[in-house]
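To: structure desk
From: M.T.
Subject: fold request, one chain
Message: Could you run this one when you get a chance? Sequence is below, nothing fancy, just the single chain.
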Amino acid sequence: MLKLYHILLALTSLVLAAVGVTGCDTGGGADESNLPEGMLLFVALDTTVSDGWRSLRVYKADLRTGRTASLSSPDDPGDDRGPALDAVWSPDGRRVVYQEAVGFDAGHLTVMNADGSGKRTLSDPWEHRASPVWGPDDRTVLYEQRVYAGVPVGLFALDVETAPSSDPVCVLCDPDGPFGADPFVTEGDTLVAVAIAPGSEPGTVVLVSPVSRGPRVGDYDVHLYLVDFRARRVLRRLTTQPLRGHRFAVARGGEAVAMMRLNAPLSESGPTPSALYVTPSLDQAPVRVAGFERGGFGGFRWANDRRHIVLRREVLDGEGYATGDHTVSVIDARDPESGPISLDWAPPSIAAVPDLYVH
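Reply: Done. Structure tokens follow.
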């Protein structure tokens, strides 16, 4: 999960981005024959307005054609919305929940239909609620909650149907629990956030928790745990051996994990070679599906079909420094030989890892 300062750093870079979204048919440059039929959900700059990072909006686009439509706008009646920061599809593809910024230390969650209608705020705008993910059903959203100045509070669950009148449920914020006062592990000066994804059993989610640092700076050894978010307790550990990587994503169902590994020590300047690995199941060894000599890594996310992975990467200049732009590609985890398929129509101002819903 991205931390607030990471988000702000990304947004600062985005102000310099020259290209955004106009909401028209942008055409497609990818090999459509190897792409699944689906809709890509993403956050990017709206170039029809001149408001810097505050013009970040939610869009959806046909994965094959690139035909794009805006789902959020500052012109909604009675609306004074801030910029969007992250957006995810519901399990049935009918709704979207997204995070909006309110100032620099707060934010709230909003739900809407897949066509952009029916927007409804789910949470108090002055509590920082970030990195939303839908639970095992179509009415629960889990998210990381932080208070002013980014102090971590814990992992919470929210009932989309009854919010904001109903209170969120704290899933992991028990000081005496297995993960301490919040679902994070602190190692030295580094605060490592966990990642969550819907599990295969009703009322459960899969939690990724770092247990130690890996041999490369920036890599961690992690274990996966099955958590009953309604009973607010950890049921069991799913992995017998720790997985190693820099970042992780768990497919819906919890049976497959994607991880980015560094091939060299993490560098604050210049490119860091990296590779994306996938475990087809938790009892199988990770398989390398893509490699990147110039690094420029920005994040990845599984599609709902548990097969395709959306990858967002930074564009680097000739010296290996980030330009503020990003590229988006799709990887078929079952056919790694095909390699990443670049979405040439994707705007370079994409501000978060897109979410793919495959029909």
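Reply (cont.): The helical segments are 4-14. Let me know if you need anything else for the meeting.
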